[in-house]
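Re: your question about 2-isopropylmalate synthase

S., sorry for the slow reply, the queue was backed up all week. Below is exactly what I fed in.
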Amino acid sequence: MRRIHIFDTTLRDGEQSPGASLAPEQKIIIARQLAKLGIDCIEPGFAVASPGDFAAIQAVSRELQTVEIAGFARAMRGDIDAAVRATQDAARRRLHIFISSSDIHLDFQLKKSRDEVLRIAREMVAYGKQFVEEIEFSAMDASRAGREFVIELVEGVIGEGATIINLPDTLGYAIPEEYGDMFRTVRKQARGGESVRYSAHCHNDLGLAVANSLAAIQAGATQIEVTVNGVGERAGNCSLEELAMAIETRQAYLGAKTGIVAGEIYETSRMVSRAMHFPIAYNKPIVGRNAFQHESGIHQDGLLKNRNTYEIMDPEAMGIPRSMIVLGKHSGRHAIKHRLAQYGITLTDDQLQEVYEKFVDRADTLKIVPDGELIAMASDSTGMQQDPYALVDLQVVAGTQRSRIAAVTIRDQAHGSERTYTGSGVGPLEAVIQCIRQAIPEAAQFEDLELHSLATGEDARGEAVVSMIRNGERYRGTAVHDDMILAAAQAFVSACNAVALTARRTDEMATDAG
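Result:
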């Protein structure tokens, strides 16, 4: 198996995505997580761009002594000097020097001839070689450049000491076959071409960044440059999680592997999404909300019998919560029965049919039926109260000049009692959560809240998804309502009920075993 090195540029190229700016302290936190993920080389920023970027690169270089750090620089002395100073405390470092190679860039951006660009590239690689042993040279826009000039440029920088050659698809223009052919041609025809390592840096303008990166691997590249969640300029870069899992899943075919720790993928994705305020698309491969969820009754039935029937990867191995069954209008009786069984609720065939009929009617309206509503349907059919707690009433007072105040009434179903609790917070949701925490002992560590509009217009219904952590286990609650605050409150109560029902079922199983 060839070892493919993963070069992460989330903190440099990813941050260049409009609106994705990160503070230096955020970069350090993300860099720590990238190290845990198993990244081989981190590019923390562009040292000459700003004092903040310089400070972040310096801090990352000092702290992360087990990861190689890349100092990014244009083929200019000032850039190289800044990159060298910022990374001087790194245990292992490289200079990443780039210059344009396509005629359109040379004519309209640099306004220089090919001979001038070749001279500058050679001089700056030689200058950088004084400071570091490892030099990565990028021929920017190589996929749109004349092949003969790319070869000449590569020969020149190899002669001056470049050790890694990056042939970027800067505009996401390449097709996999031609991108792979470029690597084969350069490796074969450039003098010294077989003595260096090759890297691919692909953008996703045509949705081919991962495909092009895989083509580069098949053509001999041993390093791929990626970003978490595929963030980056325009349509973004090659997605770290997609590339890593493509290699992992098709390892035998590709004859390649990485050092990525799969169990850290989900946490890394969420961390970057939150820090950059970039939501992840529902259908995003690997980390999207729907990536491992199934509503079709046929798929659900197959999954319940054997996961491999409709999944080629194990989401839990990537740290993704197991929530493969989504209950919507396409769901079947098997999925409903299975979901209720997770809460320790068993139905007869007649009761299951009654719940199913109610479920189908409700699913036409809600699209996705929350667990709390399904449990309520089961309660109606069995005549037994299943969910431990119910949200009876909620009132919130909000204003611009004061803290938000909430009052929440919760019914304890087991005892038939109702109590009202009050709380305050910076925002209305914080105030509501404070109230519910007082009312429900099972309320665990609040992990995350997602709010989604299920339609457009003033009458759009909102979906809230709350996740919480208790004893290392993740619990989710969902709710749908016209009022987003109320939906979030119901989802939080639903998550608390999931904790309570799971604990109740565990106690019952222990009693039976005893």
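The mean pLDDT is 90. Residues 177 and 215 are 7 Å apart (CA to CA).

Happy to talk it through on Thursday.
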